[in-house]
Amino acid sequence: MFQSKRKLKKEKSKQRLKVAFIILVFLLISITLLAYLSTHYSFGRKTYISPLAQGKLAASNSLEENLISARIFFKTISSSSDGSFVVVLADGGRIILSSKKDIKSQISSLQLILSRLTIEGKKLKTLDFRFDNPVVSF
């Protein structure tokens, strides 16, 4: 009878350890899940993009689509502080497009200038469309 009490105590202590381990694992999983959700999702908070930023984003997407449709290969498109767009071409040339002028007409001029430079065998360094006439540097 004395041995059976010992067995019962050992079994109870093993059961308590199992329950404690299960609770510990559950807590760790819950904390990890909450940490993941709090870093990747906003709980009820809404984030807004200002209308000005949305306009720049839309203009940048439009510029990208126009460049792709004109088959002008580029690496990056960025906007500068004066509102113009800086396009780095695949061959390393830098194009500065004005946001105040029609993008499509600037891109068609760009196509024409690039084709002429290719025929002449010149490598473009910078082409600036912000002025009345494009400024080319080699």
Averaged pLDDT: 82
Low-confidence stretches: 48-52
Which CATH architecture of the largest domain is right? 3-Layer(aba) Sandwich
Compute the number of strand runs. Answer: 5
In terms of DSSP E residues, the strand content is 15-25%
**What is the succession of H and E elements?**
HHEEEHEE
Characterize the largest beta sheet: strand count, sense, and whether it forms a barrel: 5 strands, mixed
User: What is the 3D shape?
Assistant: rod-shaped
Distance between the termini: 101 Å
Please give the domain count: 2
Briefly note the CATH topology name of the largest domain.
Rossmann fold
Helical residue percent? 55-70%
Q: How does this structure look, described?
A:
A five-stranded mixed β-sheet has the order 1-2-3-4-5, with helices on one face. The longest helix has 39 residues, at 2-40. By secondary structure, the protein is α+β, with helices and mostly antiparallel strands. The protein folds into two domains: 1-47; 51-137, Cell division protein FtsQ/DivIB (Rossmann fold), CATH 3.40.50. The protein is 55% helix and 15% strand.
Write the layout of secondary structure elements.
Layout: H1 2-40, H2 51-69, E1 74-79, E2 85-89, E3 94-97, H3 103-120, E4 126-128, E5 135-137
Parallel strand pairs: 3-4
Antiparallel strand pairs: 1-2, 2-3, 4-5
Question: What's a concise summary of this model?
Answer:
Helix content is 55%, strand content 15%. It has three helices and five strands; from the N terminus they run H-H-E-E-E-H-E-E.
